[in-house]
Amino acid sequence: MSDIADKVKKIVVEHLGVEESKVTPEASFIDDLGADSLDTVELVMAFEEAFSVEIPEDAAEKIATVKDAIDYIEKQKAA
Amino acid sequence: MSGNAINGRRVVVTGIGVVSPLAVGAELTWKRLIEGQSGIGRITHFDPSELPAQVAGQVPEGPTEEGGLTLSDWVPVKDQKKMDRFIHLGLAAAIQAVEDSGWKPENEDDRCATGVMIGSGIGGLQTIYEGSLTVSSGKARRLSPFFIPSALINLISGHLSIRYGFKGPNHAVVTACATGVHAIGDASRLIQYGDADVMIAGGAEAAICSLGIAGFCSARALSTGSNDDPTKASRPWDKDRDGFIMGEGAGVVVLEEYEHAKARGAKIYGEIGGYGLSGDAHHITAPAEGHEGAFRAMKAALKNSGLQASDIDYVNAHGTSTMADDLELDAVERFFGDHAKNLVMSSTKSAIGHLLGAAGAVEAIFCLQAIRDGIVPPTLNLENPARESVIDRVPLKAQKRKVDVALSNSFGFGGTNASIILKRCKD
């Protein structure tokens, strides 16, 4: 797993208070990890802070799973 | 004895919960209170050395079974950061009260007949302070989405309703230091008018932060002369008193319509005997001359109770350890007239400080415990009364005393006054 994936997973565990084993790439923040709409806003902010990236609102709305987040951040970092 | 019933509906207390500087827990707080312990110490929530007032009544940390605050026993870790401390403390008291009452609505009608009215004087002050720092450092877009719901006063009521599925009236009082009494009194009336059968009511406060202490310091309201001797700082009616001591915590009761409580065999602590409110229309922080607003609040409560002044055995005074103590004493003496000499009155703020929006609720619970146990709590540090009175103010040590009816006063900035009468429940 990449450093980015590791860090994303850690942030998700910390913010949503879920077991690490549940944070699989396919896991949906809302459907599988118990987040509500405010939790997802906070998660995106935490990603922005941790990776020094800007995630505009329209992009943030499309980040529904752990993999979505990892892919988006990896793409930003590669650019 | 159904004095203030409306449509035949009487209101009793079937659950109590307290978070105080003496302990987390209503019974341990009471035990330590009547033992004469003090919950006042040097402020550790932040470094107070820049401020003239450096002592306060902070809720002790520690294992729940020893009366300390272990937050994760009350609020799941992942939810803690979504709430200011006043919500944490309010929930801890409310959960105690609900569990103590044994009330568990099991169908939709029962859920809709159960409401919540838990307020606060100030709300999420520390959260607002930290949020303003985020914005002022140019990071407005980084402000937490939980900033607003963390600071809002009615969110104790909101969170509690979500936790237990209480779908009745969901409300919150904000009347500074009168919040706790107003919440219990107003919630009782919702039950009397049939809006609910059960109400979870009270107040919570957590304003021992730099902004809160600095604000009350600027208003010249806090004691500054006992920074080296914290347990001596809060001394209602004493000639050496020099301001109030801030406390934090929460008091919550479960109020229940009498027949509803009886039908399920609930334990009953006492009955809401009467409730009265008044406004000073005088000054934002100072009481009116002779504390006439306090007089009118007591008068309104007594009228509502259908009792006589001579029926009252114990008064839990507002008594904040400020110059206003003697004005309240004047008003109480005038109000009770010849009966004053038979009264006992104490200020429990001497032991726990002034819990602002939680004060009235915690003190109402102390009244219920005094009725139950036949013990009145002491006024600590009342060594040299600034003025004499025929009223026994229970200096230094608790007293054994039969109490059937108690009255508790709370007065708030803005000139808001409330009195509540609690009495032994009889058929």
UniProtKB/TrEMBL annotation, chain A:
Belongs to the acyl carrier protein (ACP) family. InterPro entries: ACP, ACP-like_sf, PP-bd_ACP, Ppantetheine_attach_site. Keywords: Cytoplasm, Fatty acid biosynthesis, Fatty acid metabolism, Lipid biosynthesis, Lipid metabolism, Phosphopantetheine, Phosphoprotein. It is found in: Cytoplasm. Residues 2-77 form the Carrier domain. This is Acyl carrier protein. The keyword Phosphoprotein applies. Its main location: cytoplasm. 4'-phosphopantetheine is transferred from CoA to a specific serine of apo-ACP by acpS. The keyword Protein transport does not apply. Carrier of the growing fatty acid chain in fatty acid biosynthesis. The modification O-(pantetheine 4'-phosphoryl)serine is found at residue 37. GO terms for molecular function: acyl binding; acyl carrier activity. One of its GO terms (cellular component) is membrane. Pathway: Glycolipid biosynthesis; KDO(2)-lipid A biosynthesis; Lipid metabolism; fatty acid biosynthesis. GO terms for biological process: Kdo2-lipid A biosynthetic process; lipid A biosynthetic process. Pfam families: PP-binding. PROSITE patterns: CARRIER, PHOSPHOPANTETHEINE.
Automatic annotation (TrEMBL), chain B:
Gene3D superfamilies: 3.40.47.10. Pathway: Lipid metabolism; fatty acid biosynthesis. GO terms for molecular function: 3-oxoacyl-[acyl-carrier-protein] synthase activity. One of its GO terms (biological process) is fatty acid biosynthetic process. Keywords: Acyltransferase, Fatty acid biosynthesis, Fatty acid metabolism, Lipid biosynthesis, Lipid metabolism, Transferase. Residues 8-424 form the Ketosynthase family 3 (KS3) domain. PANTHER family: 3-OXOACYL-[ACYL-CARRIER-PROTEIN] SYNTHASE, MITOCHONDRIAL, POLYKETIDE SYNTHASE-RELATED. NCBIfam families: fabF, PRK06333.1, PRK07314.1. Involved in the type II fatty acid elongation cycle. Catalyzes the elongation of a wide range of acyl-ACP by the addition of two carbons from malonyl-ACP to an acyl acceptor. Can efficiently catalyze the conversion of palmitoleoyl-ACP (cis-hexadec-9-enoyl-ACP) to cis-vaccenoyl-ACP (cis-octadec-11-enoyl-ACP), an essential step in the thermal regulation of fatty acid composition. This is 3-oxoacyl-[acyl-carrier-protein] synthase 2. It comes from Gluconobacter cerinus.
